[in-house]
Amino acid sequence: MSPAVKPISKQHPLDSLTEQEILAISSVTRLSALTLSSKPIHAVKHLTIALLPPPKLAVLAHLSIPLQTGDAPSSSPPPTLAQLGRRAESVFLDVENGYMWELRFKRVEEGDEGGKVGDWMLESQKLLEEGLQPQISPEELDRAQGYVRADERVKALAAEVGLLPEQISCDGWSIGYDARFDKKLRLQQCLLFARFDEHSNLYAHPLDFFPVLDSNSGKVIHIDFLTSRFPSPHPAPPTEPPSLIEDSSTAIQRTRIPPPLEPHEYLPEFMPEGFKYRDTLKPLHVVQPEGVSFKLDEGGRLSWEKWDLHVGFHHREGLVLSTVTYQDEQSGFLRPLFYRLSIAEMVVPYADPGHPHPQKHAFDVGEYGLGTLANDLTLGCDCLGAIAYLPGVFVGNDGTPKKINHAICIHEEDSGILWKHTDYRTGGRSRSVRGRKLVIQSAYTVANYEYIIAFSLHQDGTIEFETKLTGVLNVSLLAEGESADPYGVEVAPRINAHFHQHLFSFRIDPMIDGLANTVVESDIITSPHLTGSQENFAGNAFVARKKVLETTGEAARDADPLNERSWSIAGTRRHYASGLNGSYKIMTSGATPRLLAQKDSWVAKRAPFATHQLWVTPFVEEQLYPAGKYVPQTRDAPSDSIGFWMEGDKAIKEKDIVLYLTYGVTHVPRPEDFPVMPAEHLRLFLKPTSFFRSNPALDVPSTHDLKSVNALGTGATKVNGNGVEEGGLEVVNGGGADASCVCSA
To answer: With CB atoms 3.0 to 4.6 Å apart as the test, which of 203, 218, 408, 562 could cross-link to 147 if both were Cys?
Structure first.
């Protein structure tokens, strides 16, 4: 952590598990495994260990966050951290028998029975239903390449297209929906490429066959091949027992296709002779000579300006914001805003129906875990300026903690003009206020692709949520003369980048002025009154038509861009002037595509959240993941997924609710996206509406940055009357931190 950061000493009940806690929990997991069944479990593969947070009401009470804005503080002392308790969940694989176990532990506190203070005590155990698979670990993904290279059939197939085993490079993917295999097997489909140097771009050399790997045994149990594209048959479900499938492979529908050999590189050491980097840019530095304006503790408690919140790291969701509040100076109250904000799930379906591409609909959150794939961010590169960092910790297969030192970066940025007005009637008197935002950012590498996630807190009470998509396209092989149409684009000779979608589920757990919240849908529509009528004589009228979502039966909603449909989360506190309930409005930059697969498609069955842009459900503790808690290899929507949560026409008006917003992009690749993709930007905003009495940024002071200079000449002339600098710019009252200055040509 930067020494310029002012620490907060108070511990937060949602602080992520530490390295020491994970090590202790993995140890007691292995001890517990000896007595879980009639036969002791000796071979344990740890998959996840995570904090089980205390109940929401208990956390709010501990932090003295009101359940309703303006409530008087409770006369009872808030519960202590020891009273809240510290709990954790451990999920592991019994390697010998293939069973998955879910154990829950409680840390022993003073006064507890049955253990020593600080020890972890087993509270519950559950043998998971057959076929349920926890997320695939980074180590399992990493080991896939070695297993594939060692397989004799893979070696022979590689040799047929001129490759040595050590030139085979592998991306391990969850196999998605595939009824050909016993659902008890823990599978990966391995997308293969050729690599001719350790760091060269493997995605320039796709191969035409795809091994299916048993992650537990390390054996290749099946090999798929690219089928002919027209028609594009898919293998039928098996009729023979699984033992026979292990020795079979999908019939080759076409002549083998060697990989393209032309390099398409992006790293400096591989760029072609004569390649020259730009030398036209002068240095640009972000400096804060007096240090940063925020405070941060090692556990993630963060305060800045009038914001107070907790920044957390989760093995599955990655960056998580919790207990977000705002100190409203206009009203004099602490305003509760959001209990928890995170990416709860995402799915990436590909458009090509030819085998095996339909199985490529990756759930990058539920199948792999964003947190476990987080980057260790680099100072001055990933994060620019005066930076504070938070680590991320998760468990390895062997039970030891894996630490990412710089998993989350926090810094301030100039955000341009916050507000400005010039009164031309009084000689051009102007007031210009520059804004600043606090950026909380992380980055994740999921095989070929990068996701950069950033929350930004603004001085007017707005929360901005930005997702950048970059990295390398997932590509497939074309035969000589074969076209990528109609499902892809040939981004380089014989390299096909398929059409695909990135559909995220943004989970919003609001507490707008308390826990009694309501979602209001608004459509901007042309007035139904005709031109010439008394109500709309000139024909110019349009109105906002609003609908209150009262039950889950009407709370699976679709975007409507033509009517500028939006949704607001309203509390019960009314604005003194508008008379409307204070709310936070969800605003997007057109990033709400619909799922383009058929409604009964494999991906729609497995990713029900993607079939609508908005879902609203009652809050239920531990109900977090709209595609289910255990996602790999599901064949239908699990019983703990979003569609089942919506059943029963439950009341959601003025209730403790949760929203799931589906946002994303439909990616029609361009040659300019290869060999590495310029970042695609998706932005969402949570914006106060009838929430503050007036502009909450009126108290942000104007600044006159004395480090700013005239780029084409001398620095600005500063006078207290009227003066003219070289270049014809008139400057009025040009000095001071709170100057009211105007520049007019």
So the answer is: 218
- Asked if residue 675 has a cis previous peptide bond (ω within 30° of 0), the answer is yes
| Res 728: pLDDT | 36
Residue 565 lies in a domain: no
Are 27 and 110 found together in one domain? yes
Regarding whether 262 and 198 lie in a shared domain, the answer is: yes
What 3 state SS string does 204-215 have? HCECCEEEEEEC
Written as one string, the DSSP assignment of 673-688 is GSSSEEEEEEEEEEEE
Q: How far apart are CA 414 and CA 603, in angstroms?
A: 41
Q: Average model confidence (pLDDT) for the chain?
A: 91
Q: Mark whether 100 and 142 lie in a shared domain.
A: no
Based on the fold, state whether residues 100 and 34 are members of the same structural domain: yes
Q: Is residue 38 part of a domain?
A: yes
449 is catalytic: yes
pLDDT above 80 for 649: yes
DSSP track, 254-270: S---PPP------SGGG
44 domain-assigned: yes
Neighbours of 664 (CB within 10 A): 24
Q: For residue 259, what is the domain's CATH number? A: 3.10.450.40
From CA 608, how far away is CA 604, in angstroms rounded?
5
Which backbone phi and psi does 68 adopt, to 5 degrees?
-150, 130
Residue-wise pLDDT for 579-636, tens only, equals: 999 999 999 877 899 999 999 999 999 999 999 999 999 999 999 999 999 999 999 9
Residues 149, 246 within the same domain? yes
Q: What is the per-residue pLDDT for 705?
A: 83
Tens-digit pLDDT profile for residues 310-340: 999 999 999 999 999 999 999 999 999 999 9
Residue 400 clears pLDDT 70, i.e. is over it: yes
Of the listed 94, 297, 352, 364, which one is catalytic? 364
- How far is it, in rounded angstroms, from Cα 595 to Cα 622? 26
Determine what percent of the chain is predicted with pLDDT higher than 90: 83
Q: Which residues of 158-195 are buried (b: 16+ CB within 10 A; e: fewer)?
A: beeeebeeebbbbbbbbbbbbebbbbbbbbbbbbbbbb
Q: How far apart are CA 335 and CA 463, in angstroms?
A: 14
- Of 238 and 148, the structure prediction assigns the larger pLDDT to 148
Q: Does one domain contain both 120 and 152? A: no
Classify residue 376 by burial, with Cβ atoms within 10 Å: 0-12, 13-18, 19+.
Answer: middle
Domain boundary among 270, 291, 320: 270
Across the strands, what pairs with 687?
Answer: 585
Asked if 261 and 156 sit in the same domain, the reply is: yes
pLDDT of residue 714: 59
| Residue 683 contacts residue 665 (beta carbons within 8 Å) | no
Q: Are residues 94 and 188 in the same domain?
A: no
Which percentage of the chain shows pLDDT scores above 70? 91
The residue to which tokens 């919790």 are assigned: 322
Residue type, 732: V
Q: How many domains does the chain have?
A: 3
364 is catalytic: yes
572 assigned to some structural domain: no
d(CA 255, CA 253): 7
| Parent domain of 83 | 19-127
Per annotation, catalytic residue among 389, 449, 487, 663: 449
- pLDDT > 70? residue 247: no
